[in-house]
């Protein structure tokens, strides 16, 4: 079986699309939205193998860390990364524990006070 590149995108709860279930198209990357009370946590490890991109929230990254850290991610993308600038929060620590070949942090919020806000400890 051919290995598939797999990416994880963590977004704020209000991000558009977190209400959608599963989206697949032949012309676009296959996307699994891992969100909500009906998310399929038990089936996740088998199901994730069929998708290129998994989208979830920061809160669920912490709550479901036990399954997310079992996936071999090629990359982790953090949208609105100011949500994890406090390195002592549980969701910030959970995001940093996810193993990936690389990480990208995106933010529209300027770094205000400290250079440490840019550093993923």
- Tally the structural domains: 1
Strand order of the largest sheet: 2-3-4-1-5-6
**Total number of beta strands:** 6
Indicate the low-confidence ranges by residue numbers: 18-23
- Our Rg estimate from Cα atoms comes to 14 Å
Task: Describe the structure in your own words.
It is built from 4 helices and 6 strands, in the order βββαβααβαβ. It is globular. The protein has one domain: 3-Layer(aba) Sandwich (Rossmann fold), CATH 3.40.50. Helix content is 18%, strand content 22%. The protein has helices spanning 44-47, 58-63, 65-68, 90-97; strands at 7-11, 22-23, 31-33, 53-57, 73-78, 100-105.
Give a concise summary:
The protein has 121 residues and is α/β, with parallel strands linked by helices. The chain contains four helices and six strands.
Strand-helix topology:
Blueprint: E1 7-11, E2 22-23, E3 31-33, H1 44-47, E4 53-57, H2 58-63, H3 65-68, E5 73-78, H4 90-97, E6 100-105
Parallel strand pairs: 1-4, 1-5, 3-4, 5-6
Antiparallel strand pairs: 2-3
Features:
121 residues; alpha/beta; Rossmann fold; six-stranded mixed beta sheet; 22% strand
